[in-house]
Design a protein that fits this description.
Elements lengths: L13 H20 L3 E2 L5 E3 H8 L4 H6 L1 E4 L5 E4 L4 H10 L2 H4 L3 E10 L11 E10 L4 H17 L5 E6 L6 H14 L6 H9 L1 H4 L5 H6 L12 H16 L5 E2 L11 E8 L8 E7 L3 H4 L7 E7 H10 L11 E5 L2 H16 L4 E2 L7 H11 L3 E5 L1 H6 L1 E6 L4 E6 L3 H13 L3
Parallel strand pairs: 1-5, 7-8, 12-13, 12-14
Antiparallel strand pairs: 2-4, 3-4, 5-6, 6-11, 7-9, 9-10, 10-11, 14-15, 15-16
Helix pairs in contact: 1-6, 2-4, 6-11
The structure holds adenosine monophosphate.
Amino acid sequence: MTFKSVKGTKDLLPQDTVAWRHVEETIRVVMELYRYGEIRTPVFEETSVFTRGIGEETDIVGKEMYTFVDKGGSSLTLRPEMTAPVIRSFIQHSMGEQAVLNKLYYIGPMFRQGRPQAGRFRQFHQFGFECIGQSAPECDVEVIAMAAEIFRRLGIHSTLKINSVGDPVCRPQYREALQEFLRGVHDSLSPESQRRTESNPMRVLDSKDERDREATAGAPVILDYLSDGCRDHFERTCRMLDALDIPYTIDPRLVRGLDYYTMTAFEFVSTDLGSQDALGGGGRYDGLVEQLGGKPTPAVGFAAGVERLLMVMEKTQYQFPASAPLLYLVGMDDVSRSWVFHKAIELRQAGVAAEIDYASRSVKAQMREANKLGCPFVAIIGEREIAETQAQIKDMRKGTQESVEFGRLTEYFTTLRQREDGGQ
Ligand code: AMP
């Protein structure tokens, strides 16, 4: 009997995790610059955190959650997204009372039982950030700018779509106008959208079904229904994006069909992805903290899929930093093999990545291995080197060679590494 990883899940092997760590590191560097603190919450929560936090009407809650009853009889769910858990934690730890603004970010696995297909997995990874506590449009713009900055650093070309979904004051009028329109084209809509016309009409606008797209081409747009406050927020957001040279297109069909979403909604899409082209999205959700039992608190956030980013980077042949050992120590005979084994451990303890052979291979085979790994330095150690306590260090990139006293090897490579780290 052989076992395989569960459908829709993936092993990340060492050759994969190099790229993953690079993406994660880039995210952390940007988060540090914007002073966002990392939050890590458990991978499962009480189911109601999500049913209340995301909404029963969504695909996520309706169809995709991994929900189970534990031995104590509690209904628990593997997190399908992170905004609801972050807000649950924000309320639980009274973060709102300790600071006027809480800036949090996360990177971690999420779980959704959708149909696995290219770009859609059952365990996937998201990174995201939540800016909680202020309603200033500067917060919306900052969140968008951070996402754009991460994409830029990773060489990902993306298009930003933005819209305003209004607030609980102006949205009901739009909802009514849209509903009336949808009832008029009822017969041309997909069955799902016919149902949603009554339960959540705004979701009909982001249906991918061609029938719905055609039937709703002339639907009323929310931007015509915004209250003065929402309009002002939207215009200021757009003006700041202009000033920062962040290109965007206004997409009046971009809606987040949940009650707690307010004003700004946005999405980054990539032309380097197929039908699952969304890199990530976000928006303002001034109603969520209250919905989960906290005090009314404005907030705005963003989340993106790490797998999607990596798919784009693979396609555009992004050059990930190499992770070759700095030095390969080749041992010629039993005595020198034992010497290189101990020297390699000493060098590693000093922070120098050294590699050796463990399979008693010939000098030629060891050289081939060093080459394959891309080691910039190689030293062949034999009887003569041991007698003279000198190593001949070959610089594989320059084709030069230098003699280094055994006692100075660690120092030689630590200073070399420091110089390389310093970018010299
Ligand atoms: P959402 O929370 O649905 O708005 O998703 C945000 C981002 O997470 C998407 O734009 C995708 O990049 C990613 N994502 C969502 N669901 C999946 C999935 N099943 N597999 C891989 N990535 C996903």
